[in-house]
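Trying the structure run again after the queue cleared.
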Amino acid sequence: MISIVLCMIVIIYSDMRYSAQHKARTHARLLKKATEQFRTQGLQGTGIAKLMGRMGLTHGGFYAHFQNKSDLVAAATVKMFDETVDHMKSAVEGAPKGKELAAIVHAYLSQEHRDHPDQGCQLAVLSGEISRQPLSVRRAYTRGFQEQIKKLAVYMPGKNVEQKCERARLLLSGMAGSIMIARAVSDRELSDKILAQAREFYILAFEGYSPKKG
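Done. Tokens:
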């Protein structure tokens, strides 16, 4: 009798453990797919039913993971900022010492980044829509943006952390705008020129600071 009870407990525990692991994997898949769709289709252009359908899941299953679409957008916003910071770290790792900032600028203002918005920085694709989202989403966006600025500020010139962060905000805002325009124009040659000129300008502007000039 005891052995039967123990076997039942093991089976129940195994089922619960599998269920939790399965839910965690599905949650991660859903979040990944959502970030891709938001970047390419926009927030308004991505419906929950269609998103779940593309994953082979039911609309109702969505609510086992998120309370509503805003909850998903907030979580996706955090994930997208984390991914952008990871891309920045990758650019820095392959850069010669003292050229980290130039590497970041080149990576961000690259043709590859322009041509693959589904994997790129959300600032250049979603900022306009985020401004119309609920406060919970905008707070998640603000926290992610500030964290990205802190990471970028490490490589910026400046007398102190505050000044470095100020310049990081200027740089990131400018680069995001350049990518937006480069994607919007229909002339490929013009788009390439926008990126090239922006790379040259920002590297000269921010690497050109000397310690005395601050």
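The chain has nine helices and no strands. Worth checking whether this holds up in the mutant runs.
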